[in-house]
């Protein structure tokens, strides 16, 4: 090879780039590139692009194949163990996920907006539920009940400054905090601090995610594909700020109502000073009016995706929570006014609040199911989960999870305060009944797990016969056959997720209705209800309530423990992080207090890198994504200008684009969206295995072009010992796709399709002068 050919070869290699994007669990640049010596090309400590050290200079690649770059984004979703506290906001993340599960809305834009409105209202109810549960614990159980009951006041010394003097010791003196209104005012600091913490976390994560501007481009004419092509899809700054203000105001108003309601009720019933009675009525009206304003803000039109919306409703974002805070301060002053003869007896009026909140959530879920059904019938997708009812089912599960956590925590705190004396009235009856639904739900899940286990075992036995026929002439190894058959059977469990969600949703709906009916029956006349209830049934109900409260407490501890482990242990993160990374992939379109969306940083990073590299070099680029990285790769390809999108090749492996995202998010990853992506990019290849529990085919029709799906790949690469594999080849499943020779062949095929190789040298012929 002469010098000219060597220079052309070096330029050609430097103009061929493979941009690798890892999946769930994260990895290191050295592991992705197969070389411990790597350098950072661009980026920061949170997310960056790396190359091998020998590839850092232009034209210095002595190997065959394209230059490889690795985009490492794992620090966007992992970090120190304190980030496991995000898991406590799981109901918020789940309800935000439901926003994106909307069925495709071909020509039904108003119905689609109604769907988003109902999800946002359900999300607002979860914020109110969380803060109401904090008020129940701090205001009702501690400040109102325990400080007002002699046995509880003597049992615990730490609230002694709140209790009347006769409860603590003979001859005791009353403190300034002894009146019930002042106790409630002081206890209101707990839910207020929780609200401020949620507001701070949402605002801080905005600066880390939503503040990153996406790549500005002209999306061109809408071919009816995915909304992920729109310029403003990954820039939700304005909506998150507006929803954050509304949810913060609603949370503060919930605290204000919890403080004002007992004081206003006393002034109205017992003929207190007329000035206080009038002030209470005015304050109640102001709280209701400001709550209506907050609800109106939530009901305003949602996301603006067709353009990059850089406006910010500064007056609204500032005044709405500040006005709610001012009303809360006025309420605290009003409740703290001295009222002779006011004693804390019974429980606060939480039964009415929780009793109204739960049916309201149920009505929202029913309305959402009707809207989702209308959308699905307009554009039916046979692969969509639960016939388009995935979003309503997930909203119901989010509300149920919030209710069970609220009931379980309230039950545990009440048991800790009261011990075995049964002197406190305890939490509202509805929360007690909600905690009692935990054991039946777990029993149903165990039965379902047993059924799925039996089905998997039957499938594994059937796979053994297929494996024997796949390797004719090779000596059979029963243990090897069982391992391969078990891996294939276990991989199919992912496709049974809709059944699990459907059964869990139906169980939750039935048990929720039973809990509401039980609360209504026992809340009005508990003595008469207890006389009408048989002793055996009453014993079962009490046992279920006690067991449910303990299980919720245990689940809370396990939840935090698993979350901490997931952020420390890579293997645990691969197990737990699948659903977590799916949930935090989507922008915060329904709930501003949900964990932040990492894709609002990762997608612009990938888009900027691809657009600037192709513009500078004009070379061939293969965007190579594994697992969740394939979803990021597809989202980044959609954000490229059409001219650049048509010059890149997409290589996906272990890809959940159709198997998970296409089925659960049909409006954005359904068949029309994936078909449009296939048309827009220059070429696309997808690799998958039958033993992979996450990846699968993308099922895009060929339409006269080469097939996208190439597989399933052999796994393991060899059944027995061969000269190429003298040791037993492992069952790879979801990992190490690059170890398969098919990977290099598919990448070379995409590069050749992206642009044909340069023609060989022609015979030398002197041109005429």
From TrEMBL:
It comes from the Bacteria. Coiled coil: none annotated. Keywords: Membrane, Transmembrane, Transmembrane helix. SUPFAM superfamilies: alpha/beta-Hydrolases. The chain crosses the membrane at residues 114-134, 184-201, 245-266, 278-299, 319-337, 352-372, 393-413, 433-454, 499-523, 543-563. This is Membrane protein. It comes from Streptomyces incarnatus.
């Amino acid at each position: 090879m002469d010098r000219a050919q060597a220079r052309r070869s070096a330029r050609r290699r430097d103009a061929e780039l493979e941009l690798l994007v890892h999946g769930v669990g994260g990895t290191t640049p050295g592991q992705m590139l197969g070389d411990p010596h790597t350098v950072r090309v661009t980026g920061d400590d949170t997310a960056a692009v790396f190359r091998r050290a020998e590839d850092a200079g232009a034209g210095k690649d002595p190997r065959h194949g394209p230059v490889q770059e690795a985009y490492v984004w794992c620090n966007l979703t992992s970090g120190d163990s304190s980030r496991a506290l995000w898991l406590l906001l799981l109901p918020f993340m789940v309800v935000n996920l439901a926003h994106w599960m909307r069925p495709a809305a071909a020509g039904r834009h108003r119905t689609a907006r109604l769907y988003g409105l109902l999800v946002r209202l359900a999300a607002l109810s979860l914020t109110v539920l969380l803060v109401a549960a904090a008020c129940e614990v701090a205001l009702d159980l501690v400040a109102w009940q325990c400080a007002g009951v002699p046995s509880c006041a003597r049992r615990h010394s730490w609230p002694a400054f709140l209790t009347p003097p006769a409860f603590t010791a003979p001859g005791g003196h009353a403190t300034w905090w002894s009146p019930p209104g002042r106790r409630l005012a002081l206890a209101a600091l707990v839910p207020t601090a929780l609200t401020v913490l949620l507001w701070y976390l949402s605002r801080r994560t905005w600066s880390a995610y939503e503040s990153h501007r996406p790549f500005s481009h002209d999306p061109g004419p809408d071919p009816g594909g995915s909304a992920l092509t729109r310029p403003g899809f990954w820039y939700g700054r304005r909506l998150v700020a507006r929803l954050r203000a509304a949810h913060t105001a609603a949370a503060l108003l919930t605290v204000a109502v919890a403080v004002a309601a007992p004081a206003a009720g006393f002034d109205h019933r017992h003929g207190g000073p007329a000035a206080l009675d009038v002030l209470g009525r005015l304050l109640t009206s102001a709280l209701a009016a400001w709550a209506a304003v907050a609800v109106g803000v939530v009901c305003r039109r949602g996301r603006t995706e067709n353009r990059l919306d850089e406006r910010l409703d500064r007056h609204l974002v500032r005044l709405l929570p500040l006005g709610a805070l001012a009303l809360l301060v006025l309420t605290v002053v009003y409740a703290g006014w001295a009222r002779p003869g006011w004693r804390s007896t019974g429980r606060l009026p939480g039964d009415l609040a929780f009793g109204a909140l739960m049916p309201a959530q149920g009505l929202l879920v029913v309305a959402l199911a009707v809207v989702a059904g209308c959308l699905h019938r307009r554009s039916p997708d046979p692969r969509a989960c639960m016939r388009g009812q995935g979003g309503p089912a997930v909203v119901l599960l989010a509300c149920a999870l919030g209710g069970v956590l609220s009931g379980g925590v309230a039950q545990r705190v009440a048991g800790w305060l009261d011990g075995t004396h049964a002197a406190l009235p305890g939490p509202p009856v509805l929360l007690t009944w909600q905690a009692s639904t935990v054991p039946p739900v777990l029993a149903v899940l165990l039965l379902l797990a047993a059924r799925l286990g039996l089905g998997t075992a039957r499938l594994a036995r059937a796979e053994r016969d297929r494996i024997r026929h796949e390797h004719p002439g090779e000596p059979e190894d029963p243990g090897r056959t069982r391992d391969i058959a078990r891996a294939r059977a276990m991989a199919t469990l992912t496709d049974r997720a809709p059944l699990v969600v459907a059964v869990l949703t139906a169980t939750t709906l039935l048990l929720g209705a039973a809990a509401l009916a039980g609360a209504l029956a026992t809340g009005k006349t508990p003595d008469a209800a207890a006389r009408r209830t048989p002793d055996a049934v009453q014993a079962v109900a009490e046992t279920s309530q006690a067991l449910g409260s303990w299980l919720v407490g245990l689940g809370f501890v396990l939840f935090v423990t698993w979350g901490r482990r997931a952020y420390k242990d890579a293997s645990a993160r691969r197990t737990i992080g699948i659903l977590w990374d799916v949930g935090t992939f989507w922008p915060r379109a329904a709930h501003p207090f949900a964990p932040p969306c990492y894709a609002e940083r990762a997608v612009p990073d990938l888009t900027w890198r691809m657009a600037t590299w192709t513009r500078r070099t004009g070379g061939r680029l293969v965007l190579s994504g594994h697992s969740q990285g394939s979803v990021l790769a597809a989202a980044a390809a959609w954000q490229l200008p059409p001219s650049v999108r048509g010059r890149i090749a997409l290589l996906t492996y272990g890809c959940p684009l159709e198997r998970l995202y296409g089925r659960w998010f049909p409006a954005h990853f359904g068949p029309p969206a994936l078909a449009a992506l296939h048309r827009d990019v220059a070429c696309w290849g997808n690799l998958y295995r039958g033993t992979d529990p996450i990846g699968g085919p993308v099922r895009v029709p060929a339409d006269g072009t080469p097939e996208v799906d190439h597989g399933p790949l052999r796994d393991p690469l060899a059944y027995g010992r061969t000269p190429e594999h003298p040791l037993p080849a492992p069952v790879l499943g979801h990992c190490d796709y690059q170890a398969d020779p098919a990977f290099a062949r598919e990448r070379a095929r995409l590069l050749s399709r992206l642009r044909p190789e340069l023609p060989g040298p022609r015979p030398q012929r002197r041109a005429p002068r």
